[in-house]
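Work Package 3 (structural annotation) set out to generate three-dimensional models for the target panel prioritized at the project kickoff. During this period the team completed the workflow that converts sequence records into discrete structure tokens, so that structures can be stored uniformly alongside our sequence database. As a representative example, we reproduce one entry of 242 residues exactly as it appears in the project archive.
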Amino acid sequence: MTTDEAAEAVRSSPLVIIPVGALEQHGGGMAMSTDTVRAVGVAELVTARLAGQAVLAPAVPYGVSPHHMAFAGTMTLSPATFQQVLRDLVDSLYQHGWRQFLVITGHGGNNAALSVLAQEYLRSDLLFAWTPITAVVSDLITDVSQVHGHAGEAETAQMLYLAPELVQAERLEPGATTLDELTTPARLSRQAQGPRLSVGFDEYHKRGVLGDPRRATAEQGRLLVETAADRIAAFAAELLTA
């Protein structure tokens, strides 16, 4: 956009969609930009579904990734820095007239920081919402390992659909796939209820992978990505009426 086009968009497209990701290890077969690529891909589909009612901001390509720092190439922001980057971006666009914001995160490590940030905007005159991707379609994730998640079946499937050129199929390898394979701290960190414990991904598996990415297919990825876009777009359409 030019600045003139942006000025017009404030009036015609009141919602700003901001994709955020991470730059972190995804095993030996997927690019470290995986979470950003997925966030941008889904955000583009959501924006298209909203037919001109939303503008897509450039992605924030770094996230909260200290739990992956045992792996070469990972770059992390502190939660405070990540939040401040988003505050500054939202404030910039707020000053130009936008009042509705939707952050789409491809990285689960950003969730806690986004939840806290959302609390800060309560009782303000702007709407700040955020959404993960895979969790939105968790009901569609079937036939996966007992332990699955980061760089596993669902995430690899999404990449095979969105950016197959960034998946090195011959280098995909299984990580931790059963609870029995996990150390006690890693197993306790996987509890859905009860006390919370965070561990580094090197505690889960020497390659930092949860699940077996070799089982992923592009068709599975298409279902997850397109359905996530449908559901997020439906939420955004309602947000626009608020």
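The CA atoms of residues 74 and 235 lie 32 Å apart.
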